[in-house]
Design brief:
The complex is a heterodimer of chains A (410) and B (267). Helix content of chain A is 4%, strand content 53%. Chain A is mainly β and 410 residues long. Chain A has an 18-stranded antiparallel β-barrel. In chain A, strands 8-12-11 form a 3-stranded mixed beta sheet, with no helix packed on it. Classes of the chains: A mainly beta (410), B mainly beta (267).
Chain lengths: 410, 267
């Protein structure tokens, strides 16, 4: 059983305390641990695909694995390797893929720490859109919600001070965004031809990017300020021709993005704001974008143990037509999160993003429940409603989906 | 997004006790307060501690489920501030790596952050969920936060036999907001001032739960810790048992570990 060894290991070593924790008689600081998960997934697309060259099967089964290997070489030095692999029967071209989510060395000093290798960081506070979070590229072939990220080559050093934490990032090497295969669902109107990818920088994907972030909390306020200079994680697209017909080629410009994220926490209220100033798309002016709103939780509803969270956010994006299009230019997100707080940690989320200008809607629902101690079942649904024929969601509207997933944790 | 409110809680230096003579106070309220001050005083100076914990959940049908976690506590000497604690989950697998940081306050809401490993996201969370169940157990969040004298009003009810010892019976009335209890009756042994049993009364003043703390050991020649806590819910028949292993004290943990900037690298 994993129980014994992993518990010992973890107790033994928490950063710098290991040395003094030793007297209980454990072997030493050098401990390795393997954990992770394997999952089986079935995506169901109720409608026929919109475009003739798309695969018209309605069911897309796939399997994935994400083992996590950690080795504490010393009390203050850890090696982490987290590969990710997926085999997708319906999209063997692109969604069948692998990545190193993490492969790095982490050093933890008293007032600073550092990571070198492929790493992953998250910045921000909002739920419906992650504007500020820019270091890692999105693994869009995993899911178009952008929550899955590719491992980013980095050297990151964080300085912990009484007045906050300053993180500096040198990012040597760019990860291209992943896209569904030419005939896959959720690919959009035209396939993406990654062989014709263009970069503003003459160094292409070898351009070295930089980022810095300051984060701290002041009473009920959590504050983050960040800046990024380098290759845009979000591409523009230009139409190109291929032997098979027209396609889209991603264009990655050099950009600057300054971000601010704020959260004010009071009683059952979380008030959130993220804002960015973006410049550098060669075909557009600089612009601002923001997302802000709240999360309010009703604890112990109807005399039960369950909590009901109510979420609302307003999304605004000031980019002009020369910038890559976004679905979130003038939108309202509303959502409900139900947590039963039972032994199986049953939870459900229902969300709706509505475009205030053209009435387009993105509806999503998720639910999950643990089974026993090492399995978890998930169901997710996402549908595009009311799609405007001029909007990018028009090309996705027939790719509404229901996903069933079973995860096994080891 | 769904993973956000999975859990949270703090199992700090709670239900910890200690001894000395207590002068007779004028009223039952003053006497109760004096006993609580002594309970607190006997736990002063432990500096920091670290303990592994197994949590066994049983429902009325006898089905069980387990959790494993560890908890690190940093004593904050300022009596106006509560302790800091760090809770880390090893099991079940879907929440492995989840970490919870809490800065306990006396009457103000605690400052709490939750780290969600799947998203690598640290989220400041509301601490007003005092009466909710901690990871599906019979322990509410408020049962697990560090004991601070100023959190309650007290009333000494009398003496009672408790497992072969003589105990003070002290009623406690929560002063912080959002408590799920009208009152608690704590049994405190007169020798070492350990809280060995607590009866919890719900908002309707019905007996809700009983906590029994057993398997006591003394550390550093003065700090007593229970290694088994059994919480029985009389209204549902459910039960949660916490078993603690291998307390360590004065590990020399640095305050920089109790920092939201470090939550994503706890292991």
């Amino acid at each position: 059983m994993r129980l014994g060894s992993s518990m010992k290991r973890t107790i033994l070593c928490l950063g710098t305390l290991c040395a003094l924790a030793a007297p209980i008689g454990w072997a030493g600081a050098e401990e390795a641990e393997l954990s992770g998960s394997v999952s089986a997934e079935l995506r169901f697309f109720p409608k026929d695909p919109k475009f003739a060259d798309q695969d018209d099967r309605h069911f897309a089964p796939s399997i994935a694995a994400e083992p996590e290997f950690r080795w504490d070489a010393r009390d203050d030095l850890r090696l982490t390797v987290i590969p990710f692999l997926r085999y997708d029967a319906a999209d063997t071209e692109e969604r069948t893929h692998w990545d190193l989510r993490e492969a790095n060395l982490y050093y933890e000093g008293e007032s600073w720490d550092g990571t070198a290798g492929l790493g992953k960081v998250f910045w921000g506070v909002a739920e419906s859109r992650h504007l500020v979070d820019i270091v890692n590229q999105s693994d869009m072939v995993e899911d178009i919600d952008g929550e899955d990220k590719l491992g980013q080559p980095m050297v990151n050093v964080n300085f912990l001070q009484d007045w906050g934490t300053v993180g500096l990032f040198v990012l040597p090497g760019f990860r291209e965004r992943t896209f569904p295969g030419d005939s896959a669902r959720l690919r959009g109107g035209l396939p993406v031809d990654e062989d014709q990818t263009q970069y503003e920088s003459g160094q292409g994907k070898r351009h070295v990017d930089f980022a810095a972030r300051y984060a701290h909390y002041f009473g009920n306020w959590d504050v983050g300020v960040s800046h990024f200079h380098g290759t845009s994680r979000e591409p523009r697209f230009v139409t190109v021709s291929t032997p098979d017909g027209a396609a889209l080629a991603p264009v990655y410009d050099l950009i600057d993005q300054t971000g601010v994220d704020l959260q004010y926490t009071s009683d059952a209220w979380l008030w959130k704001f993220e804002g960015i100033r973006h410049s550098g798309f060669r075909t557009s002016d600089s612009f601002y974008a923001m997302v802000g709103g709240f999360e309010y939780t009703l604890y112990g509803i109807a005399d039960s143990d369950a909590d009901l969270g109510l979420l609302a956010e307003y999304l605004w994006d000031g980019r002009d037509s020369g910038a890559p299009t976004t679905l979130f230019d003038r939108d309202v997100f509303t959502g409900m999160r139900l947590a039963l707080n039972d032994v199986q940690s049953t939870e459900a989320l229902l969300g709706l993003v509505t475009d205030t200008r053209n009435g387009e809607m993105l509806l999503f629902a998720e639910a999950e429940r643990r089974i026993g101690d090492s399995l978890k079942a998930e169901i997710e649904g996402r549908f595009f409603l009311n799609a405007d024929s001029n909007s990018p969601s028009a090309s996705l509207e027939d790719d509404g989906q229901v996903t069933l997933r079973l995860n096994w944790y080891f | 997004m769904i993973r956000q409110s999975l859990l949270s809680a703090t199992v700090a230096a709670f239900l910890t006790p200690t001894a000395a003579g207590i002068a007779f106070a004028a009223t039952p309220e003053e006497r109760g307060h004096e006993i609580a001050v002594e309970v607190d005083a006997r736990d002063l100076g432990f500096q920091d501690s670290r303990v592994a914990m197994q949590m066994l959940l049983k429902n009325a049908e006898g089905e069980t489920s387990t959790r494993e976690l560890w908890v690190e506590t940093l004593e904050v000497p300022d009596p106006e501030e509560g302790d800091k604690s760090l809770t880390y989950f090893l099991n079940p697998g879907d929440i492995e790596g989840t970490a919870f940081l809490s800065f306990t306050k006396i009457l103000e809401p605690d400052d709490q952050w939750l780290y969600l490993p799947a998203l690598k996201r640290v989220k400041r969370i509301s601490s007003s969920n005092k009466s909710g169940p901690f990871v599906g157990s019979e322990f509410a969040y408020e049962d697990l936060t560090s004991f601070e004298v100023g959190k309650y009003d007290y009333k000494y009810l009398g003496d009672a036999n408790c497992g072969g010892m003589t105990c003070f019976m002290v009623e406690r009335y929560p002063l912080y907001e959002d408590s799920g209890y009208t009152r608690q009756v704590a049994y405190i042994d007169q020798q070492e001032y350990r809280i060995v049993k607590v009866e919890f009364y719900d908002r309707k003043d019905s007996l809700l739960k009983t906590l029994d703390a057993t398997d006591w050991k003394e550390y550093l020649g003065q700090y007593w810790r229970a290694h088994k806590l059994e919480m029985v819910n009389h209204q549902t028949g459910k039960e949660t048992v916490l078993v603690f292993h291998d307390y360590e004290f004065r590990t020399g943990v640095s305050e920089s570990n109790f920092n939201k900037a470090r939550l994503d690298n706890i292991r």
